[in-house]
Amino acid sequence: MFVSFLNANAQNPIQEFNFNGNLNSADNSISFLGTPTFVNDRNGIPKGALRLTNKAIQAVVGELPQSNKPKTISVWVKFNTVNAANYIFNYGAPVNGQYFGLIQQPVASGLSDLSLIGWGDANNLVVSVPLVKETWYMYSVTYDGNVSKIYRNGELLKAVEGIQRSAKGYILSLGKLNTSTSINADIDDFKLYGVAMTDEQVLEAYNSSKPTIATAQTTQVTSVPKKVAVTSSKAQAPIVASSVETNTAAKNIEVYSEGKRILETNTINIGDLPDGTYLIKITNSGAKK
User: Fold this and answer.
1) Where in the chain is the domain with CATH 2.60.120.200?
2) Out of 3.40.50.300, 1.20.1440.230, 2.60.120.200, 2.40.50.140, which CATH number does the structure's domain 2-207 have?
3) DSSP assigned state of 170
4) Which whole-number Å values give the CA distances from 228 to 173, 231, 234, 277, 278, in the listed order?
5) pTM higher than 0.85, yes or no?
6) What does the alpha-carbon distance between residue 207 and residue 202 come to, in Å, rounded to a whole number?
7) Sign of the CA dihedral with 153 first, then 154, 157, and 161 last
8) Taxonomically, which superkingdom (predicted)?
9) Are 160 and 123 in contact (CB under 8 A)?
């Protein structure tokens, strides 16, 4: 009954790009322009994701919602550097309230500003979040004509009312902000919806597409939550969710910072985390949360 409810409320994208060895849309009706480089996707599948390194690509997408029409855009991103700005996507004109773009700013003091750009400070939605290099995140942004929301890994980060987002135009760019290019990241499963998805739908979209990487066997780690102080400049051994002695229960690792879950995975190298204090929770992946 529960699964049927979620499926009944799921939304289908009006356009999507999976980047499975090509730049074509899923229905092969359009394509991004450029010379691509393909790498492993979040599930480790070869040539299943697009790598952009200081270059941008563009496509003419006729389904882009115009003016203040409802919209949702979601995309999986892995940042290969967090010390420079990453311009994830955008469309529209560089005029107050007529732009729709997502930017992850450089990390400073362990945090990075995530910005939904509308052009003009009053039209931007900004939230500071922890950011880990070479970690896959799913970003979702929604707009219903009045309320703008930003999500990461299915969790609502921030919402704001009353910002006009009258984006017009059909040129979709990845890696650009207006005429400037800045990105060093892997991109996968870009999806465009003609509705503003609900919190529940965004979470379901994340849960149905999050990585399913097999775990490696190593020394067993404790399942008791604990706080650890991490200094990123020191070499640290990776924490890997291993099998227990019976070799039947895989582990799930959740990392929290400032009360927010910033990472959920089966393996993590704590040397990649910015300096700070974290709560690491380790449970059986099949355990009920």
Assistant:
1) 2-207
2) 2.60.120.200
3) S
4) 40, 10, 14, 6, 6
5) no
6) 9
7) positive
8) Bacteria
9) no
CA 122 – CA 117 distance, rounded (Å): 10
pLDDT digits (tens, 9 = 90+) for 170-198: 999 999 999 999 999 999 999 999 999 99
Question: From CA 30, how far away is CA 256, in angstroms rounded?
Answer: 40
Q: Is the pLDDT of residue 230 over 80?
A: no
Determine the average pLDDT of the residues in 281-289. 62
Q: What is the pLDDT of residue 123?
A: 94
Query: What beta strand segments (E) does 10-162 contain?
Result: 15-17, 38-39, 49-53, 57-60, 71-79, 86-92, 99-104, 111-117, 125-130, 136-143, 147-152, 155-161
Look up tokens 């910033």; give the residue: 262
Contact 163, 118 (CB under 8 A): yes
DSSP state of 258: T
Cα 241 to Cα 253: distance, rounded to the nearest angstrom: 7
